Amino acid sequence: MNTLLTQPTPAVINAENEIAALLSIVPGLGHIYKGRFAAGFFWMFVGMPIAIWIGILLGLATAGMGLLLPIACWAAVAVDAYCELDLRKHHRFLPPSGEADENTLTALRQTLFPQRCR
User: Fold this and answer.
1) How far apart are alpha carbons 5 and 34 in whole angstroms?
2) Of 19, 62, 28, 32, which Cα lies nearest the Cα of 47?
3) Could you tell me the pTM of the whole model?
4) What is the tens place of the pLDDT at every residue in 99-108?
5) Rounded Cα gap, residues 87 and 111, in angstroms
6) Neighbouring C-beta atoms of residue 16, cutoff 10 Å
7) Domain span at 54
8) Domain tally for the chain?
């Protein structure tokens, strides 16, 4: 039996999700942390600038209430980063070379492809 192949504890998974949400102080950075590079760079360079621009336009038309749109968008990006599936490759779960049996590979597949946002 391979003792190096262990499932991450729920505390570790929760900590990684919280780190992604905290990194979303800079919109998109939490997505990049979780390996979602396209989504991260989209939010960083396209999504949030558009949300800020629309928020400013709506702020002029609604006596400042439209400025809540970028804040709501920013919060939604943080929640999305928290719930995203982690695509990073964690080498801590890989078995030593030449020692992978069917049970080890099954456990590895379950580790790398967990259910989304618990």
Assistant:
1) 21
2) 28
3) 0.69
4) 556 666 666 6
5) 11
6) 17
7) 10-87
8) 1
Domain membership of residue 110 (yes or no) is no
Residue 50 lies in a domain: yes
Q: Which residues contact 87 (CB under 8 A, 6 or more apart)?
A: 34, 35, 36
Can you tell me the distance from the alpha carbon of 71 to that of 77, in angstroms, rounded to the nearest whole number? 10
Assigned domain for 53 exists: yes
Report which of 28, 33, 41, 117 is spatially closest to residue 74, judged by C-alpha positions. 28
Q: What is the rounded distance in angstroms from the CA atom of residue 56 to the CA atom of residue 52?
A: 6
64 half-sphere exposure, CB direction, 13 A CA radius: 0
- Secondary element (H or E) of residue 2: none
CA distances for 82 relative to 74, 104, 107, 113, angstroms:
13, 28, 24, 16
pLDDT band at 86 (very low <50, low <70, confident <90, very high): confident
72 part of a folded domain = yes
Q: Quick check: 118 pLDDT over 50?
A: no
